[in-house]
Amino acid sequence: MIKNKIAVIVHACDRYELLFKGFEYFFSKYWDFEIPVNYYFATEEKSVDFKHFKNIKSGKGEWTNRLSNLLDQIDEDYVIYFQEDMWLSKPVDEEVFTQLFDLVLANKWPLVKLNSSPVFKTNSTDMFIKGFNVSVLNNKESDFLMSHQVSLWDKAFLKQQLMANEHPWRNERKGTKRLRKLDPEIFHMDYFAENGSPAINKNAAEVVRSEYQGISLNATLNHNVVPFLEELKSAPHLSAYTQQLQYNYTHQVTHDGKPKPLKKDFFKRMKTWLKGK
């Protein structure tokens, strides 16, 4: 049964607790829960109670250690990876995912990237899912082979990329070097328009993409959150929550009111990103 083989895991840190409710609200609005997967909302020590998600906890520690711990707690063979600041803004199609799951499970693919970005360079294949070309990354020309955007991972393969005691920016940078050397076959679909990014593959003209926005940068809300704030104003039961989000955005207060975290590799990462663009 596919449902027992694939999970959605939302990897969250407790400092970002302010974003949890918003993620769950828009995920529940746009996700199709007929998609045959199990759902986990992963925190460090805080508890959450969301209708569709089982709460699992990593404990405190470095980023790779926490994610590795979480993966050990779930039985599914594959995971669709989200983070709590990736808020869905367009509907998700159940048929796209069930067809993708059939291909992934039959062929034992290690990784399918599901977000579009100019840092990825791809080669077309003869495989299509509802007009989306299932392409293959050119590992030599692509940047960020290891990335934390929405992707479908073989759980064991993902765990292998999590070297002990790496913070997320180092994991992407060092992990990309490791994957480039390993040179696995990495697949790509233009399904999610991350922050509105255009498609990069040779898809059929009529494809209908989903979308998510990254609404946080360095522990503060960015401009992508504005449409979500407008929509949340129509939900009276979330009035106090919406006001808190609006205040933090307007005054650029961090999600927990503490100083912004130091991103040790931030400038190196941005330099590589801009080079890819």
Q: How big is the Rg?
A: 18 Å
Largest sheet: 11 strands, mixed
The fold-level CATH name is: Spore Coat Polysaccharide Biosynthesis Protein SpsA, Chain A
- Tally of individual helices: 8
Number of strands: 15
User: Helical content, roughly?
Assistant: 25-40%
Question: Which structural category do the helix and sheet elements fall into?
Answer: alpha/beta
Secondary-structure element order, N to C? EHEEHEEHEEEEEEHHEEEEHHH
Please mark out the parts with pLDDT under 50 across 5 or more consecutive residues, or reply none: 265-277
> Could you tell me the strand content as a percent range?
15-25%
Fold and architecture overview:
This protein has 277 residues and is of the alpha/beta class. It has a single domain, classed as Spore Coat Polysaccharide Biosynthesis Protein SpsA, Chain A (Alpha-Beta Complex). Helices cover 31% and strands 22% of the residues. It is built from 8 helices and 15 strands. Strands 1, 2, 3, 4, 5, 6, 7, 10, 11, 12 and 13 form an 11-stranded mixed beta sheet that branches. Strands 8-9 form a two-stranded antiparallel sheet. Helix 1 links the parallel strand 1 and strand 2. It is globular, with a radius of gyration of 18 Å. It starts with 5 loop residues before the first strand and ends with a helix. It comes from Pedobacter nyackensis. This is Glycosyl transferase family 2.
